[in-house]
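Tutorial handout. Part one gives the primary structure; part two gives the three-dimensional structure as tokens.
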Amino acid sequence: MKKIISIVKILFTKKYVCFYFVIIFLSFDFHSHSQTIDYKGLGELPVGKKVTEFAPGLITKSETFERVVAFNPDGSELFFSTVEEGFSNQRILISKYVNGKWKEPEIAEFSKEYNCAEPFISPNGKQLFFVSNRPPGNGWDFDIWMAQRINDGWSEPKRLNENINTNEGEWHPAVSSRGDLYFASARKGGLGNGDLYIAKIENGNYSKSENIGAILNTEHNEWDPYIDPKGRYIIFKSDRPGGYGHMDMYISLWKNNKWSEPKNLGPLINTKYMDDTGDVTPDGKYLIFARRNNWDFMNIYWIEFDNFFKQ
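Part two.
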């Protein structure tokens, strides 16, 4: 129960401590993806170090909570989450790119009856991952589910097994090109209330998930990992001391077979409020994230990712 209360506080508390931190630019080749996505119809494209609203009026709306955007690799579909105050009535919506135009989003078929959130499409476009408290889950016990691509649609979702899911909540799945699954969990035995975990793919099946360890996890809270398809970097959010606000986003690089010390993404991304769930588009061009300005509604923003990190 203490963990559930803590999660709610993390998501919607209005208290924050503001810290000052020098933005660190990383010299790293982030832009090596081959996909081409047509972003026409999604509003003003961010240029350089400018943060802009993502698809205002279509996806981002003034009096709603939206978070977590996932494109399929060829750019013909995008999924995103909507949620109400208190993280109730969570739904995943889908918009399709047809005849040069993004269609009005509709609730995904698998999300109409149950709470579903935090979609992620595998780099090969064949699997759709998301979290849900549909049975056997309940309340804050969200588990990770997966649907397989079938022609132009998706199979009936299946819950991943106990190598991944517990009765204490799993969140924000992300998968590398190799197939390894990264996620966050509030399960017992972690370093903090929420930690980052990995389940490696072995012979086509997921091994028992493991805590990523103290390089990334702290006694505080780490949530919502995004893993680069090639495994070169990981982005996540944390309320560890030294940030700009309540929840900040961090990045760590995979170097010499270990994760580097996480670096705060700086004041262009992180504010004194809550900055949430940073995911990168399949072509590597943009970082898409949610922000709760003035502790009001949560909306989606984006920024050029590759140029932002060049020195």
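Part three, for discussion. The chain has one domain: 2-308. The first helix runs from residue 2 to 12.
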